[in-house]
TrEMBL record, chain A:
PANTHER family tied to this protein: ORIGIN RECOGNITION COMPLEX SUBUNIT 3
Source organism, top-level taxon: Eukaryota
Ranges where the Origin recognition complex subunit 3 N-terminal domain occurs: 68-369
All residue ranges annotated as the Origin recognition complex subunit 3 winged helix C-terminal domain in the record: 624-729
Lineage summary: Eukaryota, Fungi, Dikarya, Ascomycota, Pezizomycotina
InterPro entries recorded: ORC3, ORC3_N, ORC_WH_C
Entry keywords, A to Z: DNA replication, DNA-binding, Nucleus
Family listed: Belongs to the ORC3 family.
Pfam families per UniProt: ORC3_N (PF07034), WHD_ORC (PF18137)
Stated name of the protein: Origin recognition complex subunit
GO cellular component labels: DNA replication preinitiation complex; nuclear origin of replication recognition complex; nuclear pre-replicative complex
Gene source species: Xylaria bambusicola
Location(s), subcellular: Nucleus
GO biological process assignments: DNA replication initiation
UniProtKB/TrEMBL annotation, chain B:
Segments passing through the bilayer: none
Family membership noted in the UniProt record: Belongs to the ORC2 family.
Name the UniProt record assigns to this protein: Origin recognition complex subunit 2
Chain intervals for the UniProt region annotation (Disordered): 1-134, 161-224
Role according to the record: Component of the origin recognition complex (ORC) that binds origins of replication. DNA-binding is ATP-dependent. ORC is required to assemble the pre-replication complex necessary to initiate DNA replication.
UniProt KW Phosphoprotein keyword: no
């Protein structure tokens, strides 16, 4: 039956009846009613095993229980398809999936750590404020915390979730979170508030609105008195916190009403407010009534802005020393740009990175090599061939040939064992490369002279390398011109990094790795310090040959003419020795601050992901363009020979909706349906032998019109009989 | 005097271009009626006042080509006050038109056939001024004789003039082509100008000139096209109606549909097979906390159904992974969201009844239910942007549903602007991954085609009762009565199935059996109650 079913399903033109018919055949008649497509929702169960009576389901659950864990394992693992045209072994596919899950879970936990930390200080402040509020709030005023979240509502969501959690646990408070969409009038807001408080307070649902007043009347569910009597019955908590997440979006009159109403209850119920504010407290205050403002007593709290959080996440998730995948600049820049220009949220950012990882492991057959170089050495011969075809490897061989090490090239190409060794070597070097990259980055960013942000530098250097570019010269030049105080600060900062590493990047201190350079740097630093002290004792300012004031412009007036002359200021001995120190520093930097870009490394295809396309398509869809394209050039999708036309030509073989759409594009804002029909019929009509009969044409016309309507291209117009209004213009 | 009269309708032509074919067909009288009324609407105060401005921008394009019109204009102005005619007789109008056409014939000798003849060289305003100028320049040149330094200008002028003329000829042929289509459409009535006097040709001319003015140059950028199509006063359409066309009924529609074979069937299936290949990818995405949203032209219901089958085949233990299919397009009223949530709850635990109340309370309830069961639910939602789900409050609930870690959410969207449904926070809690799934398969169940089209055209021909009617009746029944109804229908269906083989006509259901079943399901407790329920 299942097979028959499939065939039926495949035929695209089945009427509604057929479909329901199918449903009817497949499942037992009694339940077919529940499952038909005409129903809003139904449980999908093509075999009809689990009925509503749940008996069969139960039986099965019992019998299958023993192997559940194994089964779910299998299920999880089998979601990766085999690549290489199906030639990939199942184990390799599984390896890829495992690698992905392992790597991502590590990154994910790091990101979550960051997120938790970022809001910590705000949380602590707000908590402290509210806990102490009853003590110092003037009588008759509601303690309120104004949290300036900035324009990003999404990250505010997380903050408020954390806030209500902490407040419930640590301040022993009832919290209700309100969003402007939740409630449009006072009654609805009150109902929501009361329900929120009552449901968190009571354990059993039956107690919900069991509260009645003394004379036995039941409270309406938006009566604050009901809340009051409920609170009296349940164990007293110190605060009732109402959080307005997007307080600007609330109607200001409504907010004023609510505040004045609740402030009149303040004597009996200890209310407190949280306002999430996107703009500024002043603007918010201006929207409220003066009298309402006076019943608030509050403080302002700032939240860490999105940009800095993004920066942190970038460091932990992308640039971290433990990341095994390098995300290329093409991908990252479009990601960051979207983040900057459209207010995309932090969760979006994270899921984009996650999606990049998913793409890499899902679609790249070599990705199983990622985690630790040679993954269990299980290299199929196919893989070796594949690896040898990689452009990066071929480039490596070519350079070997150029450098006259043909023997080496031969080993690489012909000796399987030699090749595998080389591969393992290259992949193993990646870890060191990452560390070096990060060190270089730190050397660069510690000096304040480079204007580009960390992420920009990272993108550039990780991909293109550092050593010949413009930025490199710029950097060295800026170091050369450093004033003694700047260079001292720079060196001490650098030494600090060398000594302690950078936690956010997962970079360990590298004193032990490079004792010589550490010694050199500290020597230079000590020298500079000494020279500064000496110079200031002698009363003149230390400078180097290159520093800005080294050249002095002299103006002399000789015979009523102004003579300008530029002289190199004479350098003192101190200055000379300072210049020497700077020279040594430059030499050191020139030697260390050089690194190859990822694109030059052999086998970078294994661990480099730099593709914009799935990211863009998947996260920033352009449904209108897709739809317009489908309708104006159906051939792009259908690939049929009959519809292959030049642009904008209408042929009768096009799908009806496409023809109508073409005609529709030419109309003005009011469309005569009769004319549309006659034009349509003129195209598909019975002129030639292939034309459609009037009835069939009308059928298709109907369907196409209904589709255009459903897609929002036309709507009914009352201006004239049989006219429809045009609603969309192509390409706008 | 005759002249003035004649000029006037000619002048109105551009303003009245709207009406075309119908008029052309049979009712010339109607033309007469509509002309003055139009005039009135343009200049509400008087009929006469309409003259000056109109002659200014409408007429000259012809005028400048011949020297005489200047003479023509003056008498008209003078004669205007006396020409306060309201409705002109049929012959009266047709003669001047005929003359006018002749005049045009003189003006544009480049024209060849009679069909092209009807094309007055009316251009869009901008063009006209340039053309006017160049025409004037040409005339002046002829009169005064050419001096050498003027020659260049003259050439340019001629070029402009000629190029626009060429255009017209082109347009004329294109329009002529269109015209052929038109004649086809209407039948064969207006094809022959000979049959119905010049008034007819005039009307045809109107149609064409309208078409020309509405068909802007081909390669306009989108925004220009928008303004071109939304020019004030440009929204003139013909008065044709579908009165002559027999509209389809539901029965006709469905029977036709059954017989129709789509020529693109294979291509559509091929397209479908491409989408089917990405099923594993979707499963992967779903399993990692993303929701999948399919968009693009065509119904994605079949595809999602296949996907559900695929997921079903992948599931090893159906006890802790269920699939719920939701049809967003079902036009049930408020309760559809409640239905969705309660079905999901039933999928988790078939005995559980969600607490009554608003959707948000049900959602909370559902969440706590989910957290107490180790179960994954895949929600397959057809048409997330269907009208019933666009109501305020629906999408936030769906977003909460989709954001739940135990729920895998895949949906389809049909409209081009569906992303407007969500603000950034909703969007991020959905955490959608979008895929272009253009299927080109028709919307069979999603749309009620006949009703939709009739509504679009302003005809009320709803199916009697319709789905809404049935749901309304069912909703007004009590719970028990509804259950009983379900029971009876189920039994009748079974009976029909069984007796279809025995080829008996009216399948019957045994009263006793129904009663027993009803008692079993606690629908009623006594026979008395059973009878009352049945009555309902």
């Amino acid at each position: 039956m299942g097979k028959l079913y499939l065939i039926k399903m495949d035929s695209p033109l089945r009427s509604e009846e057929d479909y329901e018919d199918k449903q009817h055949h497949v499942s037992s008649p009694a339940s077919s009613l529940l499952r038909a497509s005409a129903y809003a929702a139904y449980i999908f169960d093509p075999l009809g095993h689990t009925d509503d009576t749940a008996r069969p389901a139960k039986r099965r659950r019992v019998c299958e229980k023993p192997d559940t864990s194994e089964a779910s394992d299998n299920e999880m693992l089998s979601s990766f398809q085999r690549l290489l045209g199906g030639a990939e072994s199942k184990s390799a596919a599984n390896l890829r999936q495992q690698a992905f899950e392992k790597l991502w879970s590590v990154i994910d936990s790091r990101i979550h750590g960051i997120l938790r930390e970022t809001n910590q200080s705000t949380l602590r402040d707000v908590l402290l404020f509210l806990q102490n509020a009853p003590d110092y709030t003037p009588a008759g005023k509601i303690p309120s915390a104004f949290i300036v979240t900035g324009p990003n509502i999404v990250s505010a969501d997380l903050l408020f979730e954390q806030l209500s959690e902490t407040l419930q646990h640590e301040a022993d408070a009832y919290t209700v979170r309100l969003r402007s969409g939740d409630a449009s009038n006072l009654r609805a807001i009150l109902r929501k508030v009361i329900q929120g408080i009552v449901s968190t307070g009571s354990v059993a649902e039956d107690e919900l609105i069991s509260t009645t007043s003394k004379d036995g009347r039941k409270f309406l569910n938006y009566d604050v008195e009901g809340l009051y009597s409920h609170l009296k019955l349940t164990p007293q908590r110190s605060l009732v916190v109402i959080a307005f997440q997007d307080s600007e979006a609330f109607d200001s009159g409504l907010l004023s009403d609510l505040i004045s109403l609740l402030s009149s209850w303040l004597g009996r119920i200890p209310f407190a407010f949280l306002f999430g504010i996107a703009t500024s407290v002043e603007l918010f205050e201006a929207r409220l009534l003066k009298s309402t403002c006076q019943s608030l007593y509050g403080d302002q709290f700032d939240v860490e802005q999105t940009a800095s959080i993004i920066d942190k996440i970038f460091k932990t998730a992308v640039a971290h020393s433990q990341t095994k995948i390098l995300l290329g600049p093409g991908f990252l820049s479009s990601l960051l740009e979207r983040q900057r220009e459209q207010v995309a949220s932090i969760p979006d950012f994270i899921s984009s990175i996650k999606y990049a990882y998913m793409c890499h492991f899902y679609a790249n057959p070599l990705s199983f090599l990622v985690p630790d170089g040679l993954n269990s050495g299980a290299l199929q011969p196919d893989y070796i061939e594949l690896l040898q075809c990689l452009p990066s490897f071929q480039r490596a061989v070519e350079t070997a040939v150029k450098n006259n090490t043909i023997g080496r090239a031969r080993i690489l190409l012909e000796d399987k064992k030699g090749f595998i060794e080389y591969l393992a070597d290259c992949l193993g070097q990646r870890g060191q490369w990452t560390t070096k990259l990060l060190r270089v980055l730190i050397i660069l960013t510690t000096s304040k002279t480079i204007t580009a942000g960390f992420s920009d530098l990272y993108m550039d250097i990780s991909y293109n390398g550092f050593g010949i570019s413009n930025q490199y010269d710029q950097f060295l030049d800026s170091v050369k011109r450093m004033e003694p105080c700047d260079s001292e600060e720079y060196l001490s900062g650098l030494l600090d990094m060398v000594r302690h590493g950078d936690k956010s990047l997962g970079l360990n201190p590298w004193v032990d790795d490079a004792p010589a350079s550490f010694a050199l740097l500290s020597e230079i630093l000590a020298g500079i310090k000494q020279l500064r002290i000496d110079a200031s004792e002698k009363g003149h300012v230390l400078r180097s040959q290159y520093s800005g004031q080294g050249k002095i412009l002299r103006t002399t007036i000789v015979a009523q003419k102004v003579q300008l002359s530029q002289n190199t200021a004479t350098l003192t001995d101190h200055d000379k020795s300072y210049t020497d120190l700077i020279h040594r520093l430059l030499e050191y930097l020139e030697a260390t601050v050089r690194i190859d870009g990822a694109r030059d490394m052999p086998f970078n295809e294994v661990w480099l992901y730099d593709s914009k396309s799935p990211y863009k398509d998947v996260f920033i869809p352009r449904p209108r363009n897709v739809l317009e394209r489908a309708l104006s050039r159906p051939h792009d999708y259908l690939g049929c020979p009959c519809c292959k036309t030049s642009i904008d030509q209408i042929t009768s073989s096009l799908p009806a909706t496409a023809i109508l759409y073409q005609l529709y594009l030419e109309t003005s804002s009011l469309v005569n349906a009769a004319d549309l029909w006659s034009a349509y019929y003129a195209i598909v009509g019975e002129d030639d032998e292939e034309g459609l009969g009037e009835q069939t044409a009308l059928l298709l016309f109907y369907r196409a019109m209904a589709e255009l309507k459903a897609m929002g291209f036309v709507k009914q117009s009352r201006k004239k009989a049989d006219h429809v209004a045009k609603l969309a213009w192509k390409g706008l | 005097m005759v002249r003035t009269k004649r000029q006037q309708p000619g002048a109105v032509v551009t303003a009245v271009r709207s009406s075309s074919r119908k008029r052309a067909r049979d009712e010339i009288d109607k033309v007469e009626e509509s002309t003055p009324s139009k005039r009135r609407s343009n200049r509400p105060a008087t009929n006469t006042g309409a003259n000056s401005s109109r002659s200014e921008y409408d007429f000259p394009s012809d005028n400048e080509e011949q020297p005489e019109p200047k003479g023509e204009e003056t008498p008209r102005k003078r004669g205007r006050p006396s020409a306060t005619k309201t409705i002109q007789a049929n012959e009266e109008i047709s003669t001047p038109r005929g003359r006018k056409n002749r005049g045009i014939n003189v003006v544009t000798p480049s024209r060849t056939g009679g069909a092209v003849n009807g094309e007055t060289p009316r251009r869009q305003r901008n063009d006209r001024s340039a053309r006017k100028k160049s025409a004037r320049a040409l005339i002046e040149k002829v009169i005064t004789g050419v001096s050498s330094d003027e020659e260049v200008d003259g050439d340019i002028a001629r070029e402009i003039y000629e190029s626009s003329e060429d255009d017209e000829v082109d347009d004329g042929t294109i329009d002529g082509h269109h015209g052929d289509g038109d004649t086809n459409e209407i039948g064969d009535e207006p094809a022959t100008p000979s049959r119905k006097s010049r008034g007819l040709t005039k009307a045809m001319k109107r149609t064409r000139t309208r078409k020309k003015s509405l068909t802007p140059p081909r390669d306009l950028p989108p925004h220009e096209l928008y303004f071109a199509q939304n020019r004030p006063g440009a929204a003139k359409t013909s008065n044709n109606t579908l009165a002559s066309l027999k509209l389809l009924t539901h029965e006709e529609y469905f029977s036709l549909l059954r017989d129709y074979e789509d020529p693109h069937r294979d291509d559509i299936e091929f397209l479908d097979s491409i989408h089917v290949q990405s099923f594993p990818q979707w499963v992967f995405e779903l399993s990692h906390g993303f929701s999948v949203c399919l968009y693009g032209y065509g119904s994605k219901r079949g595809l999602l159904y296949k996907f559900a089958k695929y997921v079903y085949s992948m599931i090893s233990d159906h006890g802790n992974h269920r699939i719920v299919i939701v049809n967003g397009y079902v036009r049930a009223s408020m309760s559809s969201l409640r239905d969705i949530l309660s079905v999901i709850a039933r999928a988790i635990d078939s005995k559980h009844k969600l607490a009554a109340g608003g959707p948000s309370i049900m959602m909370e309830n559902l969440k706590s239910l989910l957290s107490s069961h180790d179960i994954t639910i895949t929600v397959v939602l057809n048409s997330i942007d269907a009208a019933p789900l666009r109501r305020p409050g629906f999408q936030p609930i769906l977003a909460q549903l989709a954001a739940h870690p135990q729920i895998q959410f895949i949906c389809s969207a049909d409209t081009p602007d569906f992303t407007l449904l969500w603000d950034s926070s909703l969007r991020s809690s959905f955490s959608f991954v979008f895929h272009d799934c253009t299927t080109f398969s028709p919307f069979t169940t999603e749309l009620e085609v006949v009703d939709d089209v009739h509504e679009l055209l302003g005809r009320k021909a709803r199916r009697v009762g319709g789905k809404e009617g049935v749901t309304y009746v069912l909703r007004s029944l009590t719970e028990n009565a509804r259950n009983l109804y379900r029971l009876i229908v189920g039994e009748v269906l079974v009976a029909m199935d069984n007796e279809a083989d025995l080829s008996s006509e009216n399948p019957g259901v045994e009263y006793r059996m129904i009663y027993n079943k009803a008692v079993e399901e606690f629908i009623c407790s006594s026979e008395m109650a059973f009878r009352t329920l049945l009555k309902e």
